[in-house]
Amino acid sequence: MSWSMLLSLSNPLSPALHRSLTLKPTNYSVAPTACLNVDVRAPDSLLHETRSAEIIADEKKFIVGTYARAPVVLSSGKGCKLYDVEGREYLDLTSGIAVNALGHGDPDWVRAVTLQADVLTHVSNIYYTVPQVELAKRLVAGSFADRVFFCNSGAEANEAAIKFSRKFQRSSRPDEKDPPMEFISFTNSFHGRTMGALALTSKEHYRSPFEPVMPGVTFLEYGNTQSAVQLIQSGKIAAVFVEPIQGEGGIYSATKEFLQSLRTACDNAGCLLVYDEVQCGLGRTGYLWAHEAYGVYPDIMTLAKPLAGGLPIGAVLVTEKVAAAINFGDHGSTFAGNPLVCNAGIAVLDKISNPTFLASVSEKGQYFKDLLAKKLGQNSHVREIRGFGLIIGIELDVSASPLVDACRESGLLVLTAGKGNVVRIVPPLVISKEELAQAAEILVSCFPVLDQGTKN
After folding, report:
1. Distance CA 370, CA 329 (A)
2. Where does the UniProt annotation place the signal sequence (predicted)?
3. 382 pairs with which residues across the strands?
4. Which residues sit opposite 183 in a β-bridge?
5. How far apart are the C-alpha atoms of 250 and 421, rounded to whole Å?
6. Mean pLDDT (the chain, rounded)
7. Residue 380 CB neighbours (<10 A)
8. pLDDT digits (tens, 9 = 90+) for 238-264
9. Model confidence band, residue 14 (pLDDT cutoffs 50, 70, 90)
């Protein structure tokens, strides 16, 4: 199906129950919604400290402490800008950890969500709904896949891929008493926080507090073709999980030779190749799917972060041979693929899949990498600037945390990755070159903080 035909597919747009909660009254309030081109004045510093401090204090009282949050209370956003409760502006190069691909408050996304919420939000997967089928049709038309399973997050997508892989092996080898049930994952990998996805995640500090996790996972060096092929040939491996570009792991890119070797070895052994594109997929590299840059295609691909533009969604794209092994009742989810998130997904996918849009991501990504190389390439703390499209990493010889903190204080939001020594840059895909230039200036101005850390 051509993209013109794909984009012509119909986009269906067709009193909540309130739960009373008795909470301790608070004397803080949310600032008026701020937006671009509006003069937002911050109150005096005492009010700033009081309002933010009280909200942060209440968070510590009422929310389980699983997050080491930055001391910022965000209240609104527009485009690539975010605003805290005092109205202070931040240039957002995090996009909610690669989620808000269209930025904040994209009008087409808002329209799709608002109109769908007014028509139908949730009915469960006991029934058919139009937006779910329409989004699946678009995903299939624009990818290697034949069918789609919807879930609610990237971790859930990888959990489903684990189950689908094992069910496929049992289904395709009915006469074998012990079909392949093990998995290969790689160093620096991140596949999620649930018990199965966690078992595929290489960082030991994520796994060790919750062991024993799912057994049967072998971690190999990312990019080591020989060891991977050798283990696949053992006949014990149900599936190989690999990120074409590792995000959390430090913005490391696979090579075509590595992925092609995995593909060939999997085909020869009857093993499945699973691409985790939860962070690197859906336009972030300048290709709709990151693996398209290599021309090597998987049996299963997991998606999530940007697909519904900020609403929780995950998806598992599979070939027909994998789908044929899955029967009614093998897997499911109450909330997955509801009309609201799927209509949001249609709005996101229709925009990002436009070839002109994708070309702009490639152009802006190269522009920003060149700019960073020019301004930071000679800095003694910079080991490498890598990535492509708008997923970029700046590897340092020291912890990136002081730089991230300094950037935040200067109105720029960036992330860390890897072993904490990589600045991860994943802005909204709609960011302008002018905003990227502004971000580069702030980054450069904050780099001296790394020298202070070295002296201390």
Report:
1. 51
2. none
3. 396
4. 217, 239
5. 8
6. 90
7. 11
8. 999 999 999 999 999 999 999 999 999
9. very low
Q: Give the CATH number of the domain where residue 136 resides.
A: 3.40.640.10
Work out how many domains the chain is built from and give that number: 2
Domain that holds residue 363: 45-103+355-455
| Phi and psi based region of residue 186 (left: phi greater than 0; alpha: psi -120 to 50; beta: remaining) | beta
List b or e across 63-86, with b for residues whose CB sees 16 or more CB atoms inside 10 angstroms: eeeeeeeeebbebbbbbbbbbbbb
pLDDT of residue 115: 98
- Block residue for tokens 């009742």: 329
Identify whether 39 is part of a domain: no
Residues 238 and 269 in one domain: yes
In a domain, 283, yes or no: yes
* pTM listed for this prediction: 0.88
Q: What is the pLDDT of residues 99-111, one digit of tens each?
A: 999 999 999 999 9
Which whole-number Å values give the CA distances from 442 to 39, 66, 104, 121, 439, in the listed order?
21, 30, 21, 42, 5
Render pLDDT for 290-319 as a digit per residue (tens, 0 to 9): 999 999 999 999 999 999 999 999 999 999
**Residue 428: which residues within 8 A CB-CB, separation 6 or more?**
79, 80, 92, 95, 100, 101, 102, 103, 104
- Do 131 and 236 lie in one domain? The reply is yes
Can you tell me the distance from the alpha carbon of 159 to that of 181, in angstroms, rounded to the nearest whole number?
Answer: 14
Q: How many CA atoms lie within 13 A of 189 on its CB side?
A: 31
**Burial classification of residue 225, based on how many CB atoms lie within 10 Å of its CB (0-12 exposed, 13-18 middle, 19 or more buried):** middle
Of the two residues 31 and 418, the one the predictor is more confident about is 418
End-to-end CA distance of the chain: 60
Which residue is associated with the tokens 């290969």? 184
- The distance of Cα 26 from the centroid of its chain, to the nearest Å, equals 34
Q: Are 274 and 298 in contact (CB under 8 A)?
A: yes
The pLDDT score that the predictor gives to residue 52 is 86
Q: Which two tokens stand for residue 69?
A: 């949050």
Spell 363-378 as b/e; 16+ CB within 10 A means b: ebbeebbebbeebbee
- Give residue 44's identity as a one-letter amino acid code: D
pLDDT bracket for residue 40 (50, 70, 90): very low
Please check whether residue 266 is in contact with residue 232, taking contact to mean a CB–CB distance below 8 angstroms.
yes
Question: Where do the DSSP E strands lie in 330-390?
Answer: 382-388
Burial (Cβ within 10 Å: 0-12, 13-18, ≥19) of residue 239: buried
- Round to whole Å and give the CA distance between 272 and 124: 30
Strands across the sheet with 74-78, in order? 74-78, 81-84, 89-92, 412-413
Distance CA 326, CA 165 (A): 10
